[in-house]
């Protein structure tokens, strides 16, 4: 049951992050969602697109990441960690993802505001709807921010799993037991 709570926490955290992230990026460039994604909703509402894609594009990443963390927290005979023990780690990962996304978005916006480097010149060719000085910076900002969030998240998930294994190994070595929430206070 505790593993399911950890997976659930990872999934909910990813979805909340995704919705907040997509509310911002949908306002930077709605075409990132209407042109570069399948048109499931037939709308240009940044709010609806942010809500939809915030859930659809992140729940599975959160479940996968939560699954890795659950393995790190629960597998084996060493003292086990609970969702309460790792909620702070997940919060830190989300802050790092958001910070990385912000920085990457700024880089993307800056690149789109100037003549494109050769390695980015395919973007306006593949998406002619954004081939204008006003649309390209926001499109690249959204794309860079999304890619950075995924990259940090997928690097962070195994990192948290290893952190959990390490903490459990330390607890086993020192003979400590992770206190249950009912034992605190």
Rg (C-alpha, Å):
20 Å
Total count of domains: 1
Number of helices: 7
> The biggest beta sheet, please?
none
Which residue ranges are poorly predicted, with pLDDT under 50 across at least 5 consecutive positions? none
Share in β-strands: under 5%
Query: What order do the helices and strands follow?
Result: HHHHHHH
Query: What is the approximate shape?
Result: elongated
Instruction: Please tell me the overall pLDDT.
Output: 91
Q: Give the terminus-to-terminus CA distance.
A: 24 Å
Helix content: over 70%
- Total number of beta strands: 0
Class by SSE composition: mainly alpha
Task: Break the fold down into its secondary structure elements and pairings.
Elements: H1 2-28, H2 31-34, H3 46-56, H4 59-74, H5 83-112, H6 122-126, H7 136-174
Helix pairs in contact: 1-3, 1-4, 1-5, 1-7, 4-7, 5-7
How would you explain this protein's 3D organization?
The model has no long low-confidence stretch (mean pLDDT 91). The protein is mainly alpha-helical and 185 residues long. The protein has one domain. The chain has helices at 2-28, 31-34, 46-56, 59-74, 83-112, 122-126, 136-174. The protein contains 7 helices and no strands. It starts with a helix and ends in an 11-residue tail after the last helix.
């Amino acid at each position: 049951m505790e593993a399911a709570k950890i997976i659930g926490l990872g999934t909910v955290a990813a979805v909340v992050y995704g919705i907040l992230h997509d509310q911002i990026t949908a306002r930077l460039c709605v075409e990132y969602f209407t042109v570069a994604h399948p048109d499931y909703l037939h709308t240009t509402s940044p709010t609806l697109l942010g809500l939809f894609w915030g859930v659809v594009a992140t729940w599975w990443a959160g479940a996968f990441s939560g699954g890795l963390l659950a393995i790190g927290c629960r597998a084996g005979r060493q003292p086990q960690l609970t969702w309460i023990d790792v909620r702070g780690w997940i919060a830190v990962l989300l802050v790092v993802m958001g910070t990385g996304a912000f920085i990457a978005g700024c880089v993307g916006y800056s690149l789109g505001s100037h003549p494109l480097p050769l390695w980015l010149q395919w973007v306006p060719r593949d998406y002619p709807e954004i081939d204008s000085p006003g649309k390209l910076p926001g499109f690249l900002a959204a794309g860079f921010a999304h890619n950075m969030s995924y990259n940090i998240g997928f690097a962070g998930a195994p990192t948290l799993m290893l952190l959990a294994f390490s903490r459990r190994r330390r607890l086993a070595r020192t003979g400590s037991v992770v206190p249950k929430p009912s034992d605190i206070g």
